[in-house]
Design a protein that fits this description.
The structure is a homotetramer of 351-residue chains.
Chain A (H helix, E strand, L loop, with lengths): L6 E6 L4 H11 L4 E7 L8 H4 L11 E2 L3 H7 L2 E4 L6 H10 L3 E4 L9 H7 L13 E2 L2 H9 L3 E3 L3 H16 L2 E12 L14 H4 L4 E2 L8 H13 L6 E6 L6 E9 L5 H12 L5 E3 L17 E8 L4 E8 L3 H16 L15
Parallel strand pairs in A: 1-2, 1-4, 2-3, 4-5, 5-7, 6-7, 8-10, 12-13
Antiparallel strand pairs in A: 8-11, 9-10, 11-14, 13-14
Helix pairs in contact in A: 1-11, 6-11, 7-9, 7-10
Chain lengths: 351, 351, 351, 351
């Protein structure tokens, strides 16, 4: 039985990289207790056998995903599963009075038609308007009251946080946004596919899904449109980095008029000055993934290219912390009324 | 003494990564013989002691850079030195009737004022108009007749080759060009600096010289301007990749009008169809640095983003082969009347 | 002023990798406060500027190393400096009534003659007998009472912990010990030297100091001799791994007589069963550096080679946590009467 | 049709890393022509689509493995398939008068009983005595006359070449041999398995198959026994390195009596002085995988540990060149009467 003062949580689909990261973060959470982890592939095996990093830390065994059983034990349920899975279980979880934090894309898009255009038919579209987009820097108050949180995608987190102050202030031409993003390989998941093999990725670099085909585009455009107050279309190019953790987005836009670096800095400070997990770097300091590795920070820097009238915004996050599991814990903290930074204060490990 | 049928060559500044790569490529060149390598730092030591990869392959020892002595032994001289060094020796080398292939930036800019704006006073500006920009795909005939070849920069090679057919055809808006480039760490040279240490670079990724400050910009704009027939200004962001070799440039521009992928492909084929070292990838195939590693190829792919009216061009080269030493050998081959691909036909090594 | 209930600590030589790791761990330590960091190279600069991972986490600036001033502010002083430096300041620190945890080799060898044979003349030899070798699993009670703690070397930690139960039990032939150890590059420090450059280390692997020349040998032999109850000589070969963090030691010895895997497991359990930071892996599970990365664990596994009558012991640590800064904090906790695991409970980050 | 002066070759199982490496090396072989590549998985696809590094270099498409058809087109056939496959086709290939170079383990062990103890029942045991172990430095004359060559394993190549001069000279105690070997991940093949994923391997290091269980042990012991003139048993520990290419073996043995470094060097020179692909490093120089990367060299160094009476031999090879495909080409050259180094003279690429 969970101790009375701790919230009990379960992770459905805990054998991927976001699942093991949730277990890592929950193990140091003083106010939560992990009570169940599911995995079809490893059901019956101890989680610490599959992930020896959790030896002596997590003594749970993977179980099959029996929603009724899990709802009987856990108050908060994380779904860390491929898209289309969470929509099948959301109704039962919510009906049982449990709260759901979904790390997949199933509830991120408010418009079912958009979801169905990019993914496939949605079987729980009735929850799309209720679901809260779990980016605390934008939706903190809504998150606190939500039953169903759609945890943002990793690329969207890095791009939306980078552009929000500029779009709100209306100082960039929203038709000129280009996001050139680079992600570590953990973003490709733990599936056994040739394209994720060490020898295919190491000592190499490549773009993928170029030309407007990545499924994070509608999510990014939805949120940028909210900030802009009107439709936004962007060019987005993801790339695969030979690192395990980290996303760095280099984002370009044309300035509508000349502004000073100080004015830009003020916009960012106004929006993020009190944020615990957004760090505005000093002028001249440039974000790097190695400085956020393992932490829940989003580091932001920018430069003005006077020559061409553009601003270049750079953001760095750890894709499986702020880009996934850390942000999910941040959302859980808000949902439960815990201090927002609980279990998330560890600095990045460098080197 | 060199055998009569081989051209004798020397490398000034041979203890950097481009120097050892020149030695590697020259060792398999059937028509050239490396007769001297200089290095202030390692003078007196065998090159194969400093670079054990050359054990049994190169039996030269590093010597101090005595230009007169070197001109007495070598017909072709490569300078693989930091900028400002080649300009000090060019006059003596040319006066001795030797040919100079300079891998630094000293003779790449035709306009001394531009050089001096980005670098420092130029002490051999009288050679700037004579120097030929050593990009064979653009200046093959001039290279064959040159005395002084300015071997292109690594980033410029990747960007100019990617954009040339589009600019010549006039189908992109030249004010909208953004080049987001990522380079392996060998591009930072072999200097003992903290920022190039393994622990600072590995498992990380970062931009640098953001906002129009990288010295390759005037070189890129010079050549793009030539192709465009008018001034071009670009936004260029270099990034440091945790790989040893490779540059991948992701280049964005707005199309002036709607064109089909077939039409774009035809432009590239028309320009590069006969080129030995430019490979146009099949539609849907995306360049990756791991597929050009160790080779002299420039791989080019593109995608159309219908959504935003942009074209995204992607190019991949090995920064110390096609981006430096391989291209220098290609230039030497042209200069000497050798088959252009001599010593450069090895496929990339993958994995 | 430090809050009254926290111990104040200073790090002398805080701009290396062990220094920044001490700062990382101290930032999450609820019972300690970092009050001063010194660095000759960076004096006057903010630590978070040099190490952006500490942005918003550490607001100290590096200062010159003024021992009197530091002793006026800190109760516990860590020296994370090259050997020969700590011996110059130990006397002043101890005379001021402060406690010293030295991460260098200066106080690890009890016999000054041995030190001087492997290093150079020792200027504070009078402290050698007082200094406690800071391996808590062997010297916990002595550490609690010490003024001067010699924090163990990274390789010695991995080898001594691996062999201790076997030597104590007297079941291996002590003349047959071979330790083949592999270390991540952070072990080479943050010095700007060519041999530590990314391009020299990445995608490569090499032994170094082969044949009995590494300075950790006398330290290892001293402690193994203590455990064995008589002189022990070993063959030790260090290797450089293309990873940032981690040491894996593969240790070979001949068994004096046939023993079962169960008997061996019992020896390890008897010695380490209650240890918080030694994890005995299940039979068949093999240690790997990636499962201790960023944590203070030492993972131990073993295999019996029936074919040759040998036992193979494998240990994995993070060289800058359990191999340096984490162990130093563990020692500090013991010294201060804090729970031994304070600030050290974070699981390894995987991936 | 192959040109009359070139030998026609086929690769059965060409979609693994040794297959693509054979294609790379054959593409620069002036006396051989690759006429067929088979792959069940990719049948019908162009090899250059699967491996874009071969774009413009290899225009073959993968085909199903129809032995009769292949024997009709190729004079030399390489089998780069898992063990148990070559034994099924050997008879047909040899009966057709073709020569077979098998890169698997099927014909390496002369004793069928040993094979069956470590692998499974052998269906073509009648060829085991005829097959020649394809290590040219030991069996050059036999290779020239062979019909069936068993290309050595990667680990065995690195260990046998390292120990041969010492065993022949009888100066080491053959009961004390320990080989601690470390291999790049390409040695694990191109199978889509979780343990070979980038995130599982990168920034990590681990032993595997510890304690006498790796299937290369009988192959190593067979050849060491031949050299020793009597049975040899060894302890062998393989490890997985986070690099793509390379094996480094650190080999330990006790010297029977005191010998000088000069005497040892003489033994190596006597055996390998004329060998094109074995490089004896200068005293004090230590092998490293990065100096043989992409080349067919085996680099050898040694150190004497006076302290313990042991010799430590270190060897470095590229596991898919000298450890597999390069050695197979070397064998083909011998078989065909070509100069042994044909297509194999490229230096290692460093960095």
């Amino acid at each position: 039985m969970p101790s009375p003062e701790k919230v009990s949580v379960a992770v459905i689909g805990a054998s991927g990289y976001t699942g093991v990261e949730l277990a890592r973060l929950l193990s140091i959470h003083p106010l939560a207790r992990l009570v169940a982890v599911t995995s079809r592939q490893y059901a019956g095996q101890r989680m610490a056998t599959v992930f020896p990093s959790l030896h002596d830390i997590c003594d749970l065994s993977f179980e099959e995903s029996d929603i009724a059983s899990i709802c009987g034990r856990a108050e908060i349920i994380f779904t860390a599963v491929p898209h289309k899975t969470a929509m099948l279980v959301a109704s039962e979880i919510l009906a049982a009075g449990r709260k759901l934090i979904d790390l997949s894309a199933d509830f991120r898009l408010r418009d079912a038609a958009v979801y169905e255009q990019w993914y496939e038919p949605h079987s729980a579209a009735e929850y799309l308007t209720e679901a809260v987009y779990g980016l605390p820097e934008l939706y903190r108050e809504e998150i606190k009251k939500a039953r169903l949180i759609a945890n943002p995608g990793c690329y969207p987190t890095s791009i939306i946080l980078g552009l929000a102050p500029l779009l709100r202030a209306g100082i960039i031409d929203a038709t000129t946004i280009i996001a050139d993003s680079k992600s570590g390989t953990s973003g490709a998941g733990r599936g056994a596919v040739i394209s994720s093999l060490y020898c295919e990725v190491a000592d190499g670099f490549r773009p993928y899904k170029v030309g407007g085909s990545h499924r994070h585009i509608p999510e990014i455009e939805q949120e940028l449109g909210q900030l802009h107050g009107g439709a936004v279309t962007i060019t987005f190019t993801p790339h695969l980095l030979p690192i395990s953790r980290g996303i760095l987005s280099t984002i370009y836009a044309r300035l509508k008029k000349e502004v000073s670096a100080e004015q830009i800095a003020e916009l960012y400070t106004a929006m993020y000055g009190e944020e615990r997990f957004v760090r505005l770097l000093a002028p001249g300091t440039i974000p790097a993934t190695q400085y956020v590795r393992g932490s829940n920070y989003c580091d932001i820097g920018f430069a003005l290219d006077r020559h061409t009238g553009r601003i270049i915004v750079m953001t760095a996050i750890d894709n499986i912390v702020k880009g996934a599991s850390g942000q999910a814990i941040q959302n859980m903290n808000l949902l439960c009324g815990f201090p927002e930074q609980t279990a998330l204060t560890a600095p990045a490990f460098f080197p």
